[in-house]
Design a protein that fits this description.
Distance between the termini: 59 Å
CATH topology of the largest domain: Thrombin, subunit H
Structural class: mainly beta
Largest sheet: 6 strands, antiparallel, barrel
Number of helices: 4
Order of helices and strands: EEEHHEHHEEEEEEEEEEE
CATH class of the largest domain: Mainly Beta
CATH superfamily of the largest domain: predicted glycosyltransferase like domains
Strand order of the largest sheet: 4-5-6-9-8-7
CATH architecture of the largest domain: Beta Barrel
Number of domains: 3
Radius of gyration: 22 Å
Length: 283
């Protein structure tokens, strides 16, 4: 962060203004309270690290990631950082429309699974469901205003079950942004992860697979699995269920399927969302 514009400083913030930081897309009028900020030379360093990993096939010993990770996975993350730390980061892909509507919201993994599965009778609506006023929406989510005194459970990364007040189907979303709004309200930015879903059961894939009641999960409608039992699918699971080295057995629609882990797509306070390959129908 610095007082003057410069290379690697792609954003601005006025320390005396209530407005949030913004991208520097054009020349701005300098003031004593204006600051320029950005990743500095970090983007260039990331590009150099990517080149080293690709040439050697290994992560440099000087980099401590706090664990052991596959080079291909690390490169994916570094490329994401390099893109967003560049002087021309990606812009919003979907048009945001002004809206005056209401959405019903539930949180906590168990309640989200129950509402997606149509088991609304198991929920105490007085305590677990809230109604938020939508300020804007797009194909990918909502922006809503809620009282600042409410929802002490709300955090960036919180899993939500979402349904438009006049709609029929519940979907799955995640809180991406929180900010102070007008009149003692909070602005909540929500990304829609999926519209709808089906409740399934997950079991270990060992000799005792299928024993016990299994773990609840939601099969998301983005699944590309086909009728032959091959392809990929996406699952919303309880936190800690996903392991990149452990296959799972899924019971869905009175059939069992063997799942091989492919990628952890999202992780939150109480959930994992991951992609799996369906090798074959489990015996």
């Amino acid at each position: 962060m610095q007082r003057q514009p410069g290379k690697g400083c792609h954003g601005t913030v006025d320390l005396l203004s209530a407005k949030p930081p913004v991208r520097m897309v054009a020349r701005v009028t300098p003031t004593p309270s204006l600051r320029y900020f950005g990743p500095g030379a970090a983007g260039e360093v990331v590009e150099e690290v990517i080149d080293k990993i690709m040439q050697s096939g290994a992560i440099p010993s000087t980099i401590n990631l706090g664990g052991t990770y596959e080079p291909a996975f690390v490169i994916t993350v570094l490329r994401h950082l390099a893109l967003h730390w560049s002087s021309a980061p990606p812009s919003r892909q979907q048009t945001r429309r002004r809206s005056v509507a209401r959405i019903h919201v539930v949180h906590d993994f168990d309640d989200v699974v129950s509402i997606i599965a149509g088991e609304s009778k198991d929920l105490d609506f007085q305590q677990n469901m809230e109604t938020w006023m939508v300020e804007n929406e797009s194909e990918g989510g909502y922006g809503a205003l809620i009282p600042d005194s409410a929802t002490d459970w709300l955090r960036v990364g919180t899993l939500l079950g979402i349904k438009q007040a006049d709609g029929n189907a519940w979907g799955v979303g995640i809180v991406r942004r929180l900010a102070n709004g007008p009149n003692n309200q909070r602005y909540v930015g929500i990304q829609t992860l999926a519209k709808g879903g089906a409740r399934v059961k997950l079991f270990g894939s060992g000799p005792k697979a299928g024993a016990g009641g299994g773990e609840d999960a939601v099969l998301l409608p983005s699944s590309s699995a086909d009728s032959t039992g091959s392809g990929e699918l996406s699952l919303l699971m309880r936190l800690g269920t996903f392991s990149p080295k452990q296959s799972l057995q899924m019971r869905a629609y009175e059939r069992d399927y063997l799942l091989v882990p492919k990628q952890l797509v999202e992780g939150g306070q109480d959930f994992d969302m991951a992609k799996f390959r369906v090798l074959s129908r489990a015996s």
